[in-house]
Amino acid sequence: MDKDSSKFLQELCDIPGPPGFEVKASRLIKDYAEPYCDRAFTDKLGNMMFEKVGQEDGPTVLMAGHVDECGFMITGISSQGYLTFSQLGAWFDQVLLGQRVVVHSIKGDLKGAIACKPPHLMDPEEAKKVVTKDKMFIDIGACNKEEAEAMGVRLGDSATPDSKFYTVKKQAFKDGKPAGKRTIAFGKAFDNRLGAFAAVELLKALTKGEVKHPNRLISAATVQEEVGTRGARTVAASTNPDVAIVLDVDIAGDVPGIDPLRAPARMGEGISITVYDGTMIPNQPLKELVISICERKKIPYQLAYVLRGGTDGGLIHTSLTGVPTIAIGVPTRHIHSHVGVFDMKDLESCMKLVMELAKALDRETVDSLTRI
């Protein structure tokens, strides 16, 4: 990953873009990717798509990563100037209290913090219970409703975590022995700016490397995945793909208290190939193709599954007359929180894999995926 790519990744993760409010992130992606494609276009929901034709009569290959992040919508302003909110995307109650957020108002960004009634003023039984989101509020420093409104807050404004991207370089160990260096990234919105990044970075790699690919490649940054994979439906209608590679994060199970049989992927052990999730069983020949490429090209990989939840693949694979689809993930700790954690090596493995897939998916290979 060169310096420009690293800078773009940081900017992409830092920029706000919860479901329904992705336009800033989409514009950033457009500015970055447009020089490396033949055509940039969008649909009426806001998906951003980039076409690069390697072979006119080749199959249409969709590489899709959603650009929205988990965030919040302002739903009320109390007489004391506190903001009530609803979630945009799924948030676990216990990760929210005390966290900083940015409220995006018509007058500009407002710093705030998520808070609740202090435990000192709770009765003993109340203090033992988990505080739920409906009992929380955002404090932007206003002292009454009029002050909050004068600051520019309105119902329907969005808010996002106040969390910046940074990396830590350290010595890696395996089986108790030094195993080179590794770079670990911390920040918000990894779900799923990492997938969107890999999708458009592929265009840059193909262009700069003058790499031939036997297909019509479409890299897409989809919207509103976190509120029901809504962009997946329209991206399929807009591109009519012959095959789809969904690029997302995967839940890294190397966290205390997690049974490795429930979340087998581990950070730093390679990309994850999802064999099953709550919304999609992947196309089996496509899965075997991905595994064989990883093994031939020595790209580290892990097989993973998710019992609940899914990706854009859930809608894409049942769109139109059906689309052979697979989901590939970057194992990431603490998704849907203010600070996720991933290994840059896993993202680089994802980038290597999508490049090999772009070169491998010719007409005969794609047709064979659905042959009976």
Write the SSE topology.
Layout: H1 3-14, H2 23-33, E1 39-42, E2 48-53, E3 60-66, E4 71-77, E5 83-88, E6 100-105, E7 108-115, H3 124-127, E8 137-139, H4 145-150, E9 158-161, E10 166-174, E11 177-187, H5 190-208, E12 216-222, H6 230-239, E13 243-251, E14 271-276, H7 284-296, E15 301-305, H8 313-316, E16 325-333, E17 340-343, H9 344-360, H10 363-368
Helix pairs in contact: 1-5, 5-9
Q: What general outline do the C-alpha atoms trace? A: globular
Radius of gyration: 21 Å
> What is the terminal separation in angstroms?
40 Å
Structural class: alpha+beta
Percent helix, as a range, is 25-40%
Low-confidence stretches: none
Output the CATH topology of the largest domain. Answer: Aminopeptidase
H/E element order: HHEEEEEEEHEHEEEHEHEEHEHEEHH
Strand content is: 25-35%
Instruction: Look at the structure and name the CATH superfamily of the largest domain.
Output: Zn peptidases
Oligomer: single chain
Can you count the beta strands?
17
Overall pLDDT confidence: 96
- The CATH level-2 architecture of the largest domain is identified as 3-Layer(aba) Sandwich
**Which CATH top level class of the largest domain fits?**
Alpha Beta
- Counting DSSP H or I runs of 4 or more residues, the number of helices is 10
Tell me the major beta sheet.
11 strands, mixed
The total number of structural domains is 2
